[in-house]
Structure formats: structure tokens, C-alpha cells
Amino acid sequence: MTIPSNYQELPADLPIPVDDGATRHLIGMRLPDLALQATNGKTINLGEIKKKLVIYCYPMTGQPNVPLPEGWDQIPGARGCTPQSCSFRDHYQELGDLGAEVIGLSVQTTQYQKEMADRLHLPFPVVSDVQYAFQKALNLPTFEAAGMTLLKRVTLIANQGVIEAVHYPIFPSDSDAPWVVQYLKTHA
Description:
Elements: E1 35-37, E2 43-45, E3 52-57, H1 81-90, H2 92-97, E4 100-106, H3 110-119, E5 126-128, H4 133-138, E6 142-145, E7 148-151, E8 154-159, E9 162-167, H5 176-186
Parallel strand pairs: 3-4, 4-5
Antiparallel strand pairs: 1-2, 3-8, 6-7, 8-9
């Protein structure tokens, strides 16, 4: 296992994920009525949020001085969770001005996510789908790494609790927030 020197920079030679069709069923689906624990100490039911909602789902963030799983950089789309989160942080005001609420989602524990959210100064909550309830309800794509089942990187844009747009596959990861901004501007 290698420890990356900077989680916010992406290596130049990452494999590019391809569209495997694993999200084609999502547009028009209702967000599930599930309460998930968030990094802000609250329980958030994504299905109850009626305004424009951006949910960016990501595999897992690395932690300082902790090696990434063996072969992580060879898994298409795995690397880049920290740059993706930082991009949403940096575009947060603009997304809010466009009427969208932002929430991150992964299958890590809330405690694991809270360390990342605090370290990166995220102004929005990240929710834990540690029981895979959200993933199963929407049949979100996953992959296996180091004995863990992780979410593939996918971003959902919902309005009134219904998914209206899906960004998948996402590459590079820090291009996700600008994609969402552009989508919201052209679909106001």
C-alpha cells in the first residue's frame, strides 16, 4: 500500500471509467424515504427534501498518513474523492445561488466522514449509507476493493424528491461540481 503525498491532486495516468449503463434506470425515480446520519450531527431523510438537491456519491476518501487500498489507482473512477469534495466546497455558494442543496454520500461511517468533512472545511453535510439502504433502494452501482463494497462515483440531481439528472461516469472527479453548475444553469 502506498500513501499519496497529496490527496487533493490526481495522478496524471488514472484509468478513465466507462459508462457501463449502471445508472440508466435512475432518472424519474423517487429518492427513498430513508433517514441517514450526517456529519452535522443530524439525521437527514433525503426523500423528504423538496427543493433542488444534489447528492454526490463517492467511493471513499483517503485519510492523512493512511495508505489507500492496494491497487486503488488502477480502479477506473476510484481515485479522486477528496478533489471531488473540495470542488463541491469551492462551488457551494454558486450552487446555493442556483437554488440547490448539496449533500455528499458514501458508505463510510459518520465518524470517518466527519474527520474528512472537518479537515476539508465542507460547508454541507455528508451522510453515511453504511447499511447500504440508499444504495439498495436505488440500485446504485458498486465495486469491490480491499474486501470493501464501495459506491461508484455518481451524482444525482433531484427536484421535489424525484431524480431528474444523473452524472455518470464522472472523470476527472473534480469536474463534477462544474458539470452540476452548468446543468442547473441550463435547466433553471
